[in-house]
């Protein structure tokens, strides 16, 4: 009886799915922020060169 209850419990699987989704979103944000940061550095360097 206890084994069947554990097999029917889906809360653990749901928690793992939410964890994977959060990890993928974090990875996408990290890549986007890194790319954006590099582009902003180039823009500020171009502006600084133009002003000097």
Give short descriptive properties of this protein.
52 residues, rod-shaped, mainly alpha
What is the number of helices? 2
Q: Which percent band covers the strand fraction?
A: under 5%
How far apart lie the N and C ends? 78 Å
What order do the SSEs take from the amino end to the carboxyl end, as H and E? Answer: HH
Catalogue the unreliable spans.
none
Shape: rod-shaped
Report the biggest beta sheet as strand number plus sense, adding barrel if it closes.
Answer: none
| Beta strand count | 0
Roughly how much helix do the residues carry, as a percent range?
over 70%
Structural class of the helix and strand makeup?
mainly alpha
Q: Radius of gyration, Cα only, in angstroms?
A: 23 Å
Mean of all residue-level pLDDT scores: 85
Summed up:
With 52 residues, the chain is mainly alpha-helical.
């Amino acid at each position: 009886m206890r084994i069947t209850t554990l097999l029917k419990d889906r809360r653990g699987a749901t928690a793992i799915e939410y964890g994977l989704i959060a990890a993928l979103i974090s990875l996408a944000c990290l890549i986007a922020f890194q790319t954006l940061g590099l582009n902003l550095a180039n823009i500020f360097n171009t502006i600084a060169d133009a002003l000097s």
